[in-house]
Design goal:
Blueprint (H helix, E strand, L loop, with lengths): L1 E6 L2 E6 L6 H12 L9 E9 L2 E2 L16 E10 L3 E5 L4 E5 L10 H12 L6 E4 L5 E2 L15 E6 L4 H9 L2 H6 L5 H18 L2 H9 L29 H8 L2 H10 L14 H7 L3 H11 L2 E3 L4 E3 H16 L40 H17 L11 H8 L13 H22 L13 H4 L6 H20 L3 H12 L7 H17 L33
Parallel strand pairs: 1-5, 6-10
Antiparallel strand pairs: 1-2, 3-4, 3-5, 6-7, 8-9, 8-10, 11-12
Helix pairs in contact: 5-6, 5-7, 6-8, 7-9, 9-10, 17-18
């Protein structure tokens, strides 16, 4: 049959067979128009065929999708960019692609950490990057210094014992985040700031409200871990970002309203570049946040006898808080900043690394301590000899401590207890008789050998059901999808033909499902090498759909 292909303003005809695949048609188009297709580290170039509004897959057969004689296909050349780097997240255990041009590998590590922070919502002080060999990467060095090339997979590690805490914050689970909080007060306060930043980034309202009640401030910089506050001169500039900046950048309007209602200082809170939340919302095109922040900045704060604009009110409150911070208190001596004498510090290259994503160590269960203490008490009071209290089983302890008198029948015994005692005695006598062979004969059901001598009856319905179950199981093993998932996939693929009617789409879905059942591997996607220039089907080689060989 003859089909027509529209390619870059040219309308040409091609002779194709109804049993040809889309991949074979692409090869004809590539050879006729001399299209240069390639694939390298940066990306790949490939052909895309469109029919009836749907993008055709390489493994589809022309007749299956309703392409008949004189049909018109639209062909375009597509370019797909590949990720420059990959980052394995130890918290969520998934790999994140980093898009961009090839010059990203020549940037500093600090630039890459900024990109990752904008993708994941992690503050810069909670994670570090490592090479595939496990070497930690520092902000001042470039990626080339660590031999990081295009396509390299780096590893993101967090502080030891923080993996469960950060996972709970990412999902907005208040109880899980509360469960894994640290016991040290400086680390606890830092974790609250980190949790508030992540909640503002992802829009978790419940977690945000709980952290605000716990004393976390949205206009306070997240900062760095208390163990690294001594080297604040070399920190990344973005460690001064506040949770209100994250909410403005991501357009979390509900979180932003909660922050402004909690403290009006959030309206004039600058980041490392001196930008307040309103310019950040404008830069990221968050229209709702821009309208809300602009209205708040133009509002008036009223008191009993005076009303002042919001800017003056924020300036007065900031001056008052700065004056209060200079007053020395027992918990905050005058002039104190950062780490103090006796605090834990980490020196790069000298101390043992503590950012390896290890889980939080489990505490010793108090149940074991109480059990050992109970055994010691029993040993003293009842004279029991317990050589190994921890190794003694609960059953042995019960047998040693609980010695009840034998049950005796009497006229005053209730009827229920007499029945229980009688059944226990009969059971004990029966067991003893079997062991010593005193029972001459035990009543057993008669042996029936009819089932062994006769062949099983032939049942067409039963054999058909067994054959159907084995066929469905074989289909699931080879295709990787259940029959229901395959039917849904075929209906979704057929619904892409928007220019066809519903009944025609249903017919295409039935043909695709039938073809996938007869050949389970036909629906799998082809590799990129099958679309490269010069990749022709040789004589005797199977077509992608498995329909036959090319002569």
């Amino acid at each position: 049959m003859r089909i027509f292909v529209a390619f870059e303003g040219v309308f040409e005809s091609f002779d194709a067979s109804p049993d040809d695949t889309v991949q074979a048609v692409k090869l004809m188009i590539k050879d006729y128009f001399h299209v240069p297709l390639a694939e390298d580290k940066q990306g790949r170039k490939y052909l895309e065929l469109i029919y009836a509004g749907a993008v055709l897959k390489n493994s589809w057969v022309l007749a299956d999708i309703g392409i008949t004689a004189c049909s018109t296909l639209k062909c375009t050349v597509k370019e797909e960019d590949k990720p420059v780097l990959y980052v394995y997240n130890a918290v969520t255990q998934d790999t994140i692609p980093i898009m961009g041009n090839i010059y990203v590998v020549e940037e500093k590590v600090s630039y890459l950490k900024t990109l990752i922070s904008q993708l994941l919502g992690f503050p810069l002080g909670v994670f570090c990057l490592r090479t595939p060999r496990g070497r930690e990467m520092y902000d001042c060095n470039t990626l080339k210094d660590y031999q990081a090339d295009v396509g390299t997979t780096l590893r993101l590690d967090v502080w030891d014992g923080w993996k469960e805490f950060l996972a709970g914050c990412l999902l907005g689970r208040k109880l899980e985040a509360q469960r894994y909080l640290a016991e040290e007060e400086p680390v606890l306060n830092y974790q609250k700031r980190v949790a508030l930043y992540i909640a503002a980034f992802h829009g978790h309202v419940e977690l945000t409200e709980w952290l605000l009640k716990q004393g976390a401030r949205p206009n306070e910089p997240v900062g760095v871990h208390p163990y690294r506050e001594w080297c604040h001169e070399t920190h990344h500039p973005d460690v001064t970002k506040c949770p209100v900046h994250a909410a403005a950048e991501k357009g979390q309007l509900l979180i932003l309203k909660a922050f402004v209602n909690h403290s009006a200082l959030c309206l004039e809170c600058p980041n490392a570049e001196g930008q307040v939340p309103l310019p950040l919302a404008i830069k990221n095109k968050r229209k709702d946040c821009v309208l809300y922040l602009a209205a708040k900045m133009r509002s008036v704060v009223s008191f009993s006898k005076i009303s002042v604009p919001m800017r003056i009110y924020v300036g007065l409150k900031r001056w008052l808080l700065r004056a209060q911070s200079r007053i020395p208190t027992p918990k905050r001596p005058s002039g104190s900043r950062g780490a103090r004498v006796g605090d834990v510090i980490l020196v790069d290259g000298f101390t043992e690394p503590r950012m390896t994503s290890r889980g939080k160590p489990k505490a010793v269960s108090p149940v074991g301590l109480k059990a050992s203490k109970l055994l010691r008490i029993l040993e003293r009071t009842q004279g029991l000899r317990v050589g190994n209290p921890c190794g003694a089983s609960r059953r042995d302890l019960r047998e040693e401590t609980l010695r009840l008198p034998p049950v005796e029948e009497g006229p005053e015994m209730p009827e229920l207890q007499r029945r229980q005692a009688r059944s226990k005695k009969q059971k004990a006598d029966f067991t003893t008789g079997i062991k010593d062979g005193s029972f001459d004969s035990v009543p057993l059901p008669p042996l029936s050998r009819r089932g062994h001598s006769q062949a099983p009856l032939y049942s067409p319905s039963r054999n058909a059901a067994l054959f159907l179950n084995s066929s469905l199981k074989s289909f699931s093993e080879h295709s990787g999808k259940t029959p229901r998932e395959n039917a849904i996939y075929c209906l979704a693929a057929a619904s892409a033909f928007k220019e066809k009617g519903w009944l025609q789409q249903l017919a295409i879905a039935r043909i695709l499902a039938k073809r996938s059942v007869s050949n389970p591997t036909a629906g799998r996607s082809l590799t990129a090498n099958q679309n490269l220039p010069g990749r022709e089907l040789r004589e005797g080689e199977m077509t992608p759909a498995g329909l036959g060989s090319v002569s």
